[in-house]
Amino acid sequence: MEERAGLKIRVFGDPVLRKRAGLVKEVDSGCRNILSHMAQLMYEASGIGLAAPQVGINQAMIVVDAGSGLYKLINPKITAREGRQALEEGCLSVPGVCIKVNRAMRVVVEALDENSKAIKIDAEGLFACVLQHEIDHLKGKLIVDYASFLDKLKIKNKLSKLEKRVKDEVPKSETESCKLQL
């Protein structure tokens, strides 16, 4: 992965992925810069969502583009959930692993945009899935936490290799292993 302003996508085994992100107290040019670099990294990795912990920043910020434009969200929180859907998800921080995850079909998310303006998003389907996935990252939760016992056995070796990996770059073939890269 190409780095932007010192940011790189962290992979499974990096402790930052398991920490709860702190709330952003003030939206400033630093936040806007980080969000812009996160969006660039997400697009370069062919992802549709990226959370700040995935680039080593312990703050509640996400970027999402599920096909209807780029959203840069600060301190996002889910205020309503409805329905059920199960999609096979991949994760830029867990390359080579796909897990079927049950999530709400519709969510309402409240956040700040990059200009400190309060926004409310009513999302359904894929967009709702991506928002839930990225907000999970802010809580230190990964797709592997949703894996069944059998799935955990199947991915055990892949996860071990990721944890032991020393190199910074993830081979492209591994990042494209799942249709839905979040």
Plain-language structure description:
By secondary structure, the chain is an alpha+beta fold. It has a single domain, classed as Peptide Deformylase (Alpha-Beta Complex), CATH 3.90.45. It is 27% helix and 24% strand. It starts with 28 loop residues before the first helix and ends in a 7-residue tail after the last helix. 37% of the residues are buried. Residues 166-176 have low confidence and may be disordered.
Distinct helical segment count: 4
Q: What is the count of distinct domains? A: 1
Q: Main sheet, how many strands, which sense, barrel?
A: 5 strands, antiparallel
Average of the residue pLDDT scores:
89
Tally the beta strands: 7
In short:
With 182 residues, this protein is of the alpha+beta class.
Quickly list its features.
globular, 182 residues, five-stranded antiparallel beta sheet, two-stranded antiparallel ribbon, alpha+beta, 27% helix, Peptide Deformylase
Write the layout of secondary structure elements.
Blueprint: H1 29-44, E1 49-51, E2 61-64, E3 71-82, E4 85-89, E5 99-103, E6 106-112, E7 118-124, H2 125-138, H3 149-164, H4 172-175
Antiparallel strand pairs: 1-2, 2-3, 3-6, 4-5, 6-7
